[in-house]
# Entry
Amino acid sequence: MNFVGENILSVSQFSRSDIDHLFLVAEKMIPFANREKVTRVLEGAILGNMFFEPSTRTRVSFGCAWNLLGGEVRETTEIKASSLSKGESFYDTARVLSGYSDVIVMRHEQEGSVSEFAEASRVPVVNGGDGANEHPSQALLDLYTIRQEMKSQRKQVDGLRIALIGDLRHGRAVHSLCKLLTLYENIHFTLISPRDLGLPQKYIAEIKARGHAADEMEDLTSGIANADIIYMTRTQEERFSSQEQANRYRGLLRLNQSIYTEFCQPNTVIMHPLPRDSRGEAQELDEDLNENPNLAIFRQTDNGVVIRMALFALILNVADQIEASSRDVNWYTQGRFDG
Amino acid sequence: MNFVGENILSVSQFSRSDIDHLFLVAEKMIPFANREKVTRVLEGAILGNMFFEPSTRTRVSFGCAWNLLGGEVRETTEIKASSLSKGESFYDTARVLSGYSDVIVMRHEQEGSVSEFAEASRVPVVNGGDGANEHPSQALLDLYTIRQEMKSQRKQVDGLRIALIGDLRHGRAVHSLCKLLTLYENIHFTLISPRDLGLPQKYIAEIKARGHAADEMEDLTSGIANADIIYMTRTQEERFSSQEQANRYRGLLRLNQSIYTEFCQPNTVIMHPLPRDSRGEAQELDEDLNENPNLAIFRQTDNGVVIRMALFALILNVADQIEASSRDVNWYTQGRFDG
Amino acid sequence: MNFVGENILSVSQFSRSDIDHLFLVAEKMIPFANREKVTRVLEGAILGNMFFEPSTRTRVSFGCAWNLLGGEVRETTEIKASSLSKGESFYDTARVLSGYSDVIVMRHEQEGSVSEFAEASRVPVVNGGDGANEHPSQALLDLYTIRQEMKSQRKQVDGLRIALIGDLRHGRAVHSLCKLLTLYENIHFTLISPRDLGLPQKYIAEIKARGHAADEMEDLTSGIANADIIYMTRTQEERFSSQEQANRYRGLLRLNQSIYTEFCQPNTVIMHPLPRDSRGEAQELDEDLNENPNLAIFRQTDNGVVIRMALFALILNVADQIEASSRDVNWYTQGRFDG
# Structure
């Protein structure tokens, strides 16, 4: 993969060396995300941040990454105001919007919509989530977080033991992360979920086909004992046929500090694609974990910024220009970046 | 018309020499819209992009045009969040918002609202569409497209044969375009519409009063035979009293490649103000025309950017500074501009 | 108060010398707000303009202030698209969003929400309004306006006679302004409201405890006779249990030009936190006052920009760098700033 001028639609596009390259660039972005340095390398460039499905976090993260490279953002935040709601095709929408920007990030609830859009777009398109299908930048930031966390423990991703917990059936973040992890060597997946919410068989088959191990179970405590990484997820309630159907699973699998202390290794890293559900009945990750230094969930979201910066810099072929165009930040800032 | 510091509220403001001047400036904007060059001439200037009626395309096009000149955009995307919904007058809204920006683009569903707003504004106001009344930048980009298309065929706008097709009663784009075309010489209008959706009599009277020809008919194929330009429109369904009323007209007038091949001149240019309705029952412009090089609908939207850049540059009197403040684009870009 | 790196959550944070300092910086911002000069001191900095409750005016004012300092704005405009609506805690939202920006402005309908958010944020947070609780930048711009208006009459804030009129029970702007005014000497408050909508007793107690005078009354004309400032408010209809409850008070207290002429001192300044309700039944400030030079309501909103610029500049410790990084505006502008 060359990155320059390419669409980012699926984690399937990435080889291991692509990922190594991306992560190398991402690390160079840390001083900018951490507000130590400023670059204006994309000054004058425009991002079309087209979110036809509501989102605050992912939308702002992409926009922020672009701004940190010096570019401007034009955006939309819902489908109802758009021509798509008047019967316009993705083809037309793409042809039109790609006249307005240098890169487009698109989110739409319909599976495959972003690929269809990208075919007609005259500028590179990044998939910001197309329904239950793909959300590649989330999987890349998750993998990058795993790598950084392991690195700080002087471990590698190869040989990783990861426990994936919760609604493994609907979570696209989990699906994509599994795919990416199979590019490494000798990964041990522990898949912990209610019986009906297990990881779809095709992902398990792919894991095993590439020589990794996968154990399925319903019990949390036995599954997390040897994990390097715990990857907890919320129930994807919006994917169920009714709220009642979803409620049956709320709160079934919960991690808190006492369970962690009793059953986990002392350095086990806790991840979550966020948002975590903090309502009393849910609490898949208890707030008493907030002071646990192994809770990496906010390092994940911080890492989202550098991953997205790296994607943009590679697509637009400016990664090599950033260093030369950078200067120190001149305003008050505390080095708060967790990533 | 001097442009500097003026409001752009109606196509009636423009003389033919104003339009010539505007289009000359618009052509100078092409290298910027086409991402060959960057200018920062409006660095530090703020556009108030006030869309009190939903819109993605027009809103983003204006914002993009401003960004391409180097300025910042603050915007709003609906009326429900605004003080207008708490009983505030346009006078107050205008007095307040004009303290926040250097130019305001305003869209509001109420006819005449933008003019009322502009009277109280302390900065120049551009009408981004006030209900069924006016949307001058759309008409200007349509006329500019006609000029550019004719130019590439070594023809002039004078003597043009244009077929206007569809809901000619409600389409403000059509109304404003007719007005602008009457500024030229010897235009032949063929007006093709269902009987109840004909061009209002006042526009026909104006066309004839200025010495142009206008034929009304209901049949598509006989009307398009000698046209230089086919300007197709969608049924403005939102202007009908009910969806049932609107549905009576859906799909009555359709153009596709086989009709085009059989009945049109080989160079006939196809335009549409977009969005076109791609749902099965509608399809006023079939997707099999997408590969037809005379389909100019995306050149139209691209031209919207340069027209809006030119309007801003003239209103703020910076057109002459752009050349000096420009530099080459430093990121990956393919020359994709269709306009 | 040091300002640098601090949250701005409540007017209670400010001493009189803090306010003097803030207002000194605010005055230096006038040439920028008035588009005489441009500064890029915050070029590369990002504001997270997080409005989880609809707002156009305050949101755009904050965004504009940030842009005028050279920074970029990422924003959200409603709660329904946010993770908060999926059960996410303010703690999580704050930890995540504070990885995306250098300062966050937050509005949320829930009282105390912004403080809770600020505790978890890794960057300074400015309260943009938390329900009926606080909206400190509004109170600061009101006080700044009073100071500027008195200054132009060669008077001081000390010794001020102010008539507060309307729904004094629910208006957070009034509550916060009263608090700030108590920092000065010898203020005379005339509190004019319907019986049930009087200023809550705790504010009256505070006024008196600090040695100021407070008279309560229901009649408008007798209360405004000696006022330096009339501060009129609209009925906060959204705080009533039903529209019927609110309607009982609509239009009870109205000021128009003939009342002004008959009962006020010739230089009495008229203020209002806006929006004013221009519907026939309400009209707490009649439009026939629009030509009255003492109507300061649009100078208030203009002052909002310089106050917010000053807050940002102080929080980020760049106030001293602005002068050196400034240049003249190069585009057409009329000196329209009223503040």
